[in-house]
Task: inverse folding
């Protein structure tokens, strides 16, 4: 997605060979116009999939998801990172390990919002090691919902997440795929943008 | 805002005399179409205020804020509830006490995204005791930004937050104001919806 790639080129900050900071438009400060276009792009790529729900995780997944939901006309559910202890029997949960923060989070959603009749689009801001997406897929499986695909704003193509998810048979659509952050330069993988890599 | 009030009437669940659960469209599952209309309503009420930034707090403030930002064409900043310890000198912070969860959270934003030239619209999903809004206003003051107003999706008019903020001189616009949740029934304050109560 050219608009997004240009935004990353302009405003992304390479902190190390593995860390790209985009908190000027995605993770902390949010650019609503860009989110709208991102939502439109997700909607266009998944519009024939019969999506009934979008599933994401707080907090940075919410803005792109709600814009995709606006255009696909489906509700968004965001998984919370902490369990509500009073509701433990009414939740689907999974554990997500963050390599960046080096901590595990329990993520969960209320059972009543997802069931076997749902076709779910999982959306997240970043795909690195794939832990968050795998956790969300896990929750969808608990609910016996079908996973129609995974929409990612920025994929770090040099980490394993995309490969793992595609090998598991998921259709992964990443709007920007980064091949390398070496020497402080963002290099994009342009060949397969928008395609499912088998 | 009639659409919102009808949605609360239909889908809101009164858990006690002080707790209204709206996690089917606002706090957990999100209705993007409704969020779009909420954003439009905020934009229309504050459009003559010269807003340059919207300031909110993760996670439930993000969806209405990003829709308001879309229509006011300004960026949204969401305060995080946990400090990034490596960035401590680059953050504006404040402490927010949650009466519901009975815990204090440090909230913070990166200094570079707010300054004395900004006119800020603070948006949040709920206004009860006003702690979150006061914390966000505190952060805006640290940045010497001007606070143009406070937009609230649902105000619990029977709690003190709205009164405190209005007495401090803030323009508070609540799209639905609840007068009472007694006996399991949601009663709305209809007289002053959309008006600044002096």
Result:
């Amino acid at each position: 997605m050219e608009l997004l790639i240009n935004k990353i080129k302009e405003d992304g900050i390479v902190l190390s060979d593995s860390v790209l900071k985009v908190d000027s438009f995605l993770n902390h400060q949010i650019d609503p116009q860009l989110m709208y276009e991102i939502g439109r792009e997700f909607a266009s790529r998944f519009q024939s999939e019969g999506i009934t729900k979008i599933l994401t995780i707080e907090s940075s997944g919410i803005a792109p998801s709600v814009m995709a939901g606006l255009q696909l006309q489906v509700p968004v559910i965001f998984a919370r990172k902490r369990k509500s202890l009073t509701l433990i029997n009414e939740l689907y949960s999974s554990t997500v390990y963050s390599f960046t923060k080096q901590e595990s989070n329990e993520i969960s959603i209320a059972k009543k919002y997802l069931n076997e009749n749902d076709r779910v689009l999982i959306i997240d801001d970043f795909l690195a090691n794939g832990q968050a997406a795998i956790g969300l897929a896990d929750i969808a499986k608990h609910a016996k919902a079908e996973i129609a695909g995974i929409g990612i704003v920025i994929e770090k193509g040099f980490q394993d997440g995309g490969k793992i998810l595609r090998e598991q048979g998921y259709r992964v659509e990443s709007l920007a795929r980064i091949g390398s952050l070496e020497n402080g330069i963002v290099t994009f993988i342009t060949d397969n943008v928008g395609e499912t890599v088998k």
Observations:
- Residues 68 and 137 of chain A are 18 Å apart (CA to CA).
- The first helix of chain A runs from residue 2 to 11.
- The interface with chain B takes residues 23-25, 28-33, 35-36, 58-59, 62-63, 65-67, 69-70, 73-78, 80, 109-110, 113 of chain A (CB under 8 Å).
